[in-house]
């Protein structure tokens, strides 16, 4: 297949607009998978993906298709739909020349449609809008087309209408791809230049690399070099995804496929790397900016004895997902564990679920925090990954020039009647409104700058409930700004409990302090003396609760008579003690920590 008979394309869409369903239909239509009706979302390989109905890791598939008397090779590169995985989206797009922008004709364009459109537009790809779900009685294709025109300034007059569910109009999708998306460039007579855009570990064959061949050809036995590490490899196998790996004799210019080359560890496969042939060096293709962690959370084994086994599982899982950052951490309350950085809270949930399902792990995950920054007068900058890193009150006075927090630039799309509620939501979450536009006569697109810390907790749930499910939301990182940060401390009878401290904006301390004190009161058992719970910031008490002392002795109800029962009770108490952590005179059971520190 010469490049002019190849098309490399992806489908981008807001979550649930039908991307996976359309991919399945196209694979059936071209005979890659059979029409048994059992092919639900073939590209969504991970169990988590199938369960949650979201695409996490990009996969791809090659199809053969005849059009206008010519045979074409069409490579569909899958992209994840959710905002947390926009990093995966941009690397999938680097392997394509164009993309189908799929819009649900009943819902119209949503926040992720906008975010994904700009990702593709920024990569210089041809964007072909198509309207899905026209079978729904609530579908309003004319209105959705109007939104596409006004939001993206692209002509939507001839936009394709289809139903990926019933199959209506699906036969016109691939002809449109061939006509509207340009073929890949590159030349067969130039030295090999291949972009590594995805990688995974296979139990049987080891590291598998997905590559887009930009120039030349690659075949079994070739000696190739990584531009990144200058390591040499011998290609053991090349092939296409059909949709399972299927060996071929070579991958030629314009093609997308997989190679295996005896890489020992997935850490050798740098996504964004360029491969060239040994002794024929070429200029490396522009790589990708590495993914940055947006949220951090502590992860601890429920059973401390499981640490070593879990450590291995965490290593394996992070090898397959290089966007997770890993640091070991020891907590006074929860023991040995890890501080992991994620792209967002959904990414965090998916990671936890994979750890539990694929590695049979039982873990505690602490509430998510964001990476704050401290700027010192001497020019140093420090990232605050845990509250223990936060400077002392004295250091804050003498050495710190500014405290900074990360921000996102958010896009929200909703019907006009929720304008008031959405503006209020942004303001409550310390957002700064940057403006709004109407994408049709009654739908608003609102732009707003928000502290990342405000969106990692319940922001999304509140957005949905305040808009009765009609608002959609997407965001991208937008750098750091100076912010009045403080460390909230928790004191039990005057003794600080470091494990419960948290860094936050001064404005949120009062509410968070009250909430923490009340939650602790609810889980601390009475002891033989009063326990004063206090939360404080900058030496000032924010909230105070008291757990009244226990009057009765545990053994009192035994009346001194039944010795064995008394022993049993005392032993039980001793066992309970093992799991107690002592703070000054106050003992806290492990469960109390879990209750207030972890997410459900
Ligand atoms: P992500 O992979 O999470 O981004 O979602 P997706 O965009 O792939 O959506 P998916 O294909 O999973 O479809 C979401 C839901 O919409 C499923 O319940 C589909 O059955 C349904 N659906 C997809 N296409 C159509 C359509 O043309 N008409 C109707 N009525 N329903 C559809």
Account of the protein in words:
There is one protein chain. This protein is an alpha+beta fold. The protein is 26% helix and 34% strand. A hairpin with a 2-residue loop joins strand 30 and strand 31 (540-547). The longest helix has 18 residues, at 506-523. Guanosine-5'-triphosphate binds next to helix 1. Pfam families: EFG_C, GTP_EFTU, GTP_EFTU_D2, LepA_C. It catalyses: GTP + H2O = GDP + phosphate + H(+).
Shape, principal axes of CA atoms:
globular
Structural class: alpha+beta
- Total number of helical segments? 15
Radius of gyration, CA atoms, in whole angstroms: 28 Å
Count the E strands: 33
Pick out the low-confidence regions. 53-58
Q: How can the largest sheet be summarized?
A: 8 strands, antiparallel
Bound molecules: guanosine-5'-triphosphate
- Helix proportion: 25-40%
Summary of the model, kept short:
By secondary structure, the chain is of the alpha+beta class. It is built from 15 helices and 33 strands.
Question: What is the strand and helix layout of this fold?
Answer:
Layout lengths: L5 E8 L5 H11 L17 H6 L7 E8 L2 E8 L8 H8 L4 E7 L6 H12 L3 E7 L8 H12 L7 E2 L11 H8 L12 E10 L3 E10 L1 E3 L3 E4 L5 E3 L2 E5 L3 E3 L2 E3 L3 E5 L13 E4 L17 E7 L5 H14 L4 E7 L3 E8 L2 H14 L4 E3 L6 E5 L4 E4 L8 H6 L1 E16 L3 H10 L3 E7 L4 E9 H4 L3 H8 L5 E11 L2 E8 L2 E2 L5 E4 H18 L7 E7 L2 E8 L15 H16 L1 E4 L2 E4 H8 L3
Parallel strand pairs: 1-3, 1-4, 4-5, 5-6
Antiparallel strand pairs: 2-3, 7-8, 7-16, 8-15, 9-14, 10-11, 10-16, 12-13, 12-15, 17-19, 17-20, 18-19, 21-22, 21-23, 23-25, 23-26, 24-25, 27-28, 27-29, 27-30, 30-31, 32-33
Bound molecules: guanosine-5'-triphosphate.
């Amino acid at each position: 297949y010469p490049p002019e008979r190849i098309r490399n394309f992806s489908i981008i869409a807001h979550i649930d607009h039908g991307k996976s369903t359309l991919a399945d239909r196209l694979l059936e239509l071209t005979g890659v998978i059979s029409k048994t009706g059992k092919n639900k979302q073939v590209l969504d390989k991970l169990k988590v993906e199938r369960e949650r109905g979201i695409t996490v890791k990009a996969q791809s598939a090659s199809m053969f298709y005849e059009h206008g008397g010519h045979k074409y090779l069409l490579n569909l590169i899958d992209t994840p739909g959710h905002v947390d995985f926009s990093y995966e989206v941009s690397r999938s797009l680097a392997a394509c020349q164009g993309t189908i922008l799929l819009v649900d004709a009943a819902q119209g364009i949503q926040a992720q449609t906008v975010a994904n459109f700009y990702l593709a537009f920024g990569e210089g790809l041809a964007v072909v809008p198509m309207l899905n779900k026209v079978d729904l009685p609530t579908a309003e294709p004319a209105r959705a087309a109007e939104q596409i025109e006004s939001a993206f300034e692209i002509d939507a007059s001839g936009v394709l209408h289809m139903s990926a569910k019933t199959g209506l109009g699906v036969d016109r999708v691939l002809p449109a791809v061939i006509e509207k998306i340009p073929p890949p460039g590159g030349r067969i007579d130039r030295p090999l230049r291949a972009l590594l855009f995805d990688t995974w570990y296979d139990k049987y064959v080891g590291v598998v690399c997905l590559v887009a061949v930009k120039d030349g050809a690659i075949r079994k036995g070739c000696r190739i070099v990584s531009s990144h590490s200058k390591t040499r490899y011998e290609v053991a196998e090349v092939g296409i995804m059909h949709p399972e790996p299927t060996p071929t004799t070579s991958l030629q210019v314009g093609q997308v496929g997989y190679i295996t080359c005896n890489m020992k560890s997935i850490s050798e496969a740098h996504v964004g790397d360029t491969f060239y042939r040994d002794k024929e060096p070429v200029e490396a293709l522009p790589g990708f900016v590495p993914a940055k962690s947006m949220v951090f959370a502590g992860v601890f084994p429920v059973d401390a004895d499981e640490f070593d086994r879990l450590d291995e599982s965490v290593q394996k899982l992070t090898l397959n997902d290089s966007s997770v950052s890993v640091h070991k951490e020891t907590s006074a309350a929860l023991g040995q564990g890890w501080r992991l950085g994620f792209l967002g809270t959904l990414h965090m949930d998916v990671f936890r679920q994979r750890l539990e399902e694929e590695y049979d792990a039982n873990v505690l995950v602490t509430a998510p925090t964001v990476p704050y920054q401290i700027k010192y007068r001497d020019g140093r900058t420090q990232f605050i990954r845990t509250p223990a890193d936060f400077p002392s009150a004295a250091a804050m006075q003498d050495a710190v020039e500014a405290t900074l927090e990360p921000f996102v630039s958010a896009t929200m799309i909703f019907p006009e009647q929720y304008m008031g509620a959405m503006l209020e939501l942004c303001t409550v979450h310390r957002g700064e409104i940057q403006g709004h536009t109407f994408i049709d006569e009654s739908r608003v697109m609102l732009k707003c700058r928000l502290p990342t810390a405000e969106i990692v907790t319940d922001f999304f749930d509140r957005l949905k409930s305040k808009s009765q499910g009609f608002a959609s939301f997407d965001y991208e990182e937008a750098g750091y700004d100076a912010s009045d940060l403080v460390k909230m401390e928790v004191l039990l009878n005057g003794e600080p409990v470091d494990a419960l401290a948290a860094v936050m904006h001064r404005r949120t301390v009062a509410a968070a302090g009250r909430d923490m004190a009340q939650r602790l009161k609810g889980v601390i058992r009475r002891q033989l003396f009063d326990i004063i719970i206090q939360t404080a910031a900058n030496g000032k008490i924010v909230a105070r609760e008291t757990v009244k002392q226990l009057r009765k002795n545990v053994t009192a109800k035994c009346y001194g008579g039944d010795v064995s029962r008394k022993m049993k009770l005392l032993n039980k108490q001793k066992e309970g003690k093992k799991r107690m952590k002592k703070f000054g005179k106050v003992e806290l059971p492990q469960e109390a920590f879990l209750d207030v520190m972890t997410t459900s």
